[in-house]
Amino acid sequence: MTGLRIGELTSLRVSDVTGAATQIRVRGKGDRERTVYVANDRLQTDFRRFWEDRCDTAGSQAWLFTNTMGDRLTPQAFRKRLRTLSKSLRIEPHLTPHRFRHSAATLLIEEGVDIRLVQRLLGHASIATTEIYTRVSDNSLSSAVSAADTLAKVDAY
């Protein structure tokens, strides 16, 4: 998972992908550039195959994601495709691009990744925006409290 904004995703060109399809150069809000990484092995394999096919058929300056006419896939069209997929798979609530972004941020934070690194990966100008994702799940909070059960540790001595 990369945590890209939908507009960033649909604005990617084939040439923005590097490192055997493991790194993506992103132009975010305010025309700020950053690099995101495709870390999941299965996603890397599938994405590399897709990217190589786009390189072969479209060239480096082509849009990475296109509609059936070969034009840039718009954020609205991407949302519509995702909603159709959600309905066909009977996923409720429906999948949204931002839900993927939110999940990526939350999972990184829950795995203990430094919030400043998460901020950089998400392209947030302000750390305060990234802190929205620090609201941990009840399960994570319960696990942390159980792991830090100081009274039980004192009783053990």
UniProtKB/TrEMBL annotation:
Q: Which keywords appear in this protein's UniProt record, sorted alphabetically?
A: DNA integration, DNA recombination, DNA-binding
Enumerate the PROSITE patterns for this protein.
TYR_RECOMBINASE
Q: Which GO terms describe its biological process?
A: DNA integration; DNA recombination
Highest rank taxon of the organism: Bacteria
Q: Which GO MF terms are attached to this record?
A: DNA binding
Pfam families named in the record: Phage_integrase
InterPro entries hit by this protein: DNA_brk_join_enz, Integrase-like_cat_sf, Integrase_catalytic, Tyrosine_recombinase_XerCD
> Does the record carry Nucleotidyltransferase as a key word?
no
Q: Locate the Tyr recombinase domain: which residues?
A: 1-146
Recorded family membership: Belongs to the 'phage' integrase family.
Q: What is the name listed in the Swiss-Prot or TrEMBL entry for this protein?
A: Tyr recombinase domain-containing protein
